[in-house]
Amino acid sequence: NAGVTQTPKFQVLKTGQSMTLQCAQDMNHNSMYWYRQDPGMGLRLIYYSASEGTTDKGEVPNGYNVSRLNKREFSLRLESAAPSQTSVYFCASSPDRGLYQPQHFGDGTRLSIL
Amino acid sequence: AQSVTQLDSHVSVSEGTPVLLRCNYSSSYSPSLFWYVQHPNKGLQLLLKYTSAATLVKGINGFEAEFKKSETSFHLTKPSAHMSDAAEYFCADSGTYKYIFGTGTRLKVLA
User: Fold this and answer.
1) A101 contacts B94? CB cut-off 8 A
2) What span, in angstroms and rounded, lies between the C-alpha atoms of B99 and A101?
3) CA A105 to CA A15: how far, in whole Å?
4) How do residues A18-30 score in pLDDT, each as one tens digit?
């Protein structure tokens, strides 16, 4: 049972380059999330998709775009990477976006912007 | 405003001694509280969740947490630490449908 799969696991970019982080879940969950994790700051929500066909901004959306391609897949795009976007990015999913809903996480993408 | 505060950024214990990781929440609504663990280079894994059915919640790997409304706390405990418990632990609240994570507590277990 794969759960949440993120690709790539590591990436180094130059400032101004673009890239898309991929995420897929096989648990038939409705809701999906993108977070970034920085030292001492916990996890901060970038974007989420409560259900297929919808996306909404989270706490730190600037510089990012997302696409909910279908129920399984939720991608995160950096159009013009900046050093401030160096971080570890986690994708997560949950059955629905409601109370008592635990989130299931992928193993992360470690992204460095030079 | 909804917030989650983990009171210690680092905790060190000796193997075989009790573990206490502290979490306080602030929510205008009934909280929906979780503890997650993160091992190096891995994503977060659910340890336990509070669902209002019981104030003492048992999780995986011998961990448990007690919900205390009067103290707005949801501290994580384990009677006897194991070397494999060394990791970072996150408290979270989804009480207003918005998931808020604490900043994490790194647990070090000394041999």
Assistant:
1) yes
2) 10
3) 28
4) 999 999 999 999 9
